[in-house]
Specification:
The chain has 350 residues and is mainly α. 46% of the residues lie in helices and 4% in strands. It has 14 helices and three strands. The protein has a three-stranded antiparallel beta sheet. A hairpin with a 6-residue loop joins strand 1 and strand 2. Helix 6 (151-164) packs antiparallel against helix 8. The longest helix is centred in the N-terminal third of the chain and has 20 residues, at 89-108. The chain is elongated and about 80 Å long. The protein starts with 16 loop residues before the first helix and ends with a helix.
Length: 350
């Protein structure tokens, strides 16, 4: 008989097991963390006891170190739809961390549990962050892929991927009904349910929306009745990426993946704009994944040591000025192009 049988005193805890678990979960500042922990705990107790969190009793909380090891092995064995491992080592470590955190809380609040039994050595870090992809490369990929099977659809998928920064799963679930014309401004809004079940809405241009409509005009699209924009399997997308890397001579060490499209936008705009664009819960997360420019030639330490007259540009020709502009960081070039467009519109030249 375990130690729970000895504590059958009414009122030992002020609330039910579920209420106390939720008190712990809701104590996190990040709603994203709270949602992940709740999901992780629900998964564990369904495997361990076959119960929802709302059904748990104090007796159900009894676990052994061996149980946690068995559960981790169970997670490692789960396969995805392509036969590979569904959960990475890092994901599994996060799921286990949620359990460990809960048992520390329970022990602190006089439950007859020992948090030490949840202590197991973390699995090795198997993360491999996808490599950096630049805007001009993404644009070239969208162009090259047009010559392949379902080229219009693949090109639109790439364009959507690097423009909206939606994850692959979100992109593949978009329906035409999710895309709505703004009632005032000249753009469309695309709404998806992203990571952590958070709704995320991103605007797209009328040109991109018209590109999506071209998919509907393809003969093969007539067989689909689900209103989804994209009908590309994950295998097809992987084969597309392999083809593009070969066509553009992108070396393996750059580790370019489909997810690389997601980070293209991070070189544009401010940190605040990037946080909103990616729907991140904190600036720390945005900064961690922000597109880093490895060119240090324009660093503060070098610029501050050079006193150059502001009139230096007056001695250059138009062609020389354009040459300098085109050598700048892509985010800076985009901003200058946008400023130039605004000037031409004010002059009535566009």
């Amino acid at each position: 008989m375990n130690s729970f049988a000895k504590n059958n005193v009414v009122g030992l805890h002020s609330g039910s097991v579920y209420e106390d678990i939720m008190t712990h979960i809701n104590d996190f500042e990040s709603g994203f963390t709270s949602q992940n922990y709740k999901s992780s705990l629900s998964r564990f107790f369904m495997w361990m006891r076959g119960k929802e969190l709302t059904e748990l009793t104090e007796e159900d909380l009894y676990i052994r170190n061996a149980d946690l090891l068995k559960y981790r092995n169970y997670l490692k064995e789960i396969k995805d739809e392509e036969g590979g491992r569904k959960y990475s080592n890092n994901s599994i470590n996060n799921y286990i961390a949620a359990i460990q955190s809960l048992y520390k809380f329970l022990e602190k609040n006089d439950y007859e549990v020992k948090s030490i039994v949840t202590k197991i050595k973390p699995l090795a870090d198997d993360s491999q962050r996808c490599g950096t992809l630049y805007a001009h490369e993404a644009e070239k990929m969208a162009e090259v892929v047009l010559s392949t099977v379902k080229g219009i659809e693949k090109s639109a998928l790439i364009h959507m991927a690097y423009t909206t920064s939606f994850r692959k799963s979100s992109l593949l679930n978009i329906r035409y009904s999710d895309i709505v014309k703004h009632d005032i401004y000249d753009y469309y809004e695309v709404a998806v349910i992203g990571k952590g079940n958070k709704k995320h809405t991103v605007p797209i241009s009328c040109e991109l929306y018209n590109q999506l409509l071209q998919i509907k005009k393809q003969d093969y699209y007539k067989k689909y009745q689900d209103d989804k924009v994209f009908h590309l399997s994950k295998t097809t997308i992987q084969e597309m990426m392999d083809f593009l890397k070969q066509e553009l001579n992108i070396p393996p060490h750059r580790n370019i993946k489909f997810h690389s499209f997601r980070n293209v936008a991070s070189m544009y705009g401010t940190l605040e704009e990037a946080k909103a664009h990616y729907n991140h819960s904190s600036y720390d997360v945005t900064e961690r994944y922000r597109h880093k420019d490895n060119d240090l030639s324009n660093s503060l330490s070098l610029r501050i040591d050079k006193n150059i007259d502001d009139n230096i540009f007056n001695g250059l020709s138009k062609e020389e000025l354009i040459e300098i502009i085109l050598k700048q960081h892509e985010g800076a070039i985009f901003q200058m192009k946008r400023d130039a467009q605004n000037i031409l519109e004010r002059r009535g030249d566009m």
